[in-house]
Amino acid sequence: MIITKEEFEKFNKLYRTAFVNSLSGFKSANLIGTISKEGKTNLAIFSSVIHVGANPPAIGFLMRPVSVERHTYTNIKETNHFTINHVCKNFFTKAHQTSARFDKDISEFDEYGLTPEYSDTIKAPYVKDSKIKNGCRFVEEQKIKFNGTIFMVGEILEVILPDDVIGEDGFVDIEKVGTIAISGLDSYHETKRIARLSYAKPGNEASEL
Fold it and tell me: What is 5-189's CATH number?
């Protein structure tokens, strides 16, 4: 089967959205925590978080155009801080519901029984139930001219995670804490590692670590 651009355009909106969102494969599941300048917390699920760089440590996420009110975007611009919290199996249904549209004065933490927690470094709230969390300072945004989406970049100022998930080589075993993945908009998945492979070099075959 080959589906062309012209055929995409014939799909109804919901079908096209579900179809195209599934094409990139498995994605990370994260809750982004923010707080307004008035002190109102906000929490939203994102499947577009990616590694940006290791030195300095940086992470980013893509968000939809701000043609309508985006509380996550507004809060980050006001306070310059946000948290990225891995979604785990024990609270993924609550995390999913944070994609619902609420008024700015309603906190998703309160609506879904998720507990905020704070550090001395980051103004924005973390999700207490999450096992791996990044505290970030907003450093840059890039607008994608093609469709108006915005890529937000944060410098990682602190990471909160259990001691026993960090390997001797620095590898973080996210499966050990129950981090899950997303495909499409609403399909949640547990993962199972096949293998870790050696650093790729010309002329060498991959070997398992």
Answer: 2.30.110.10
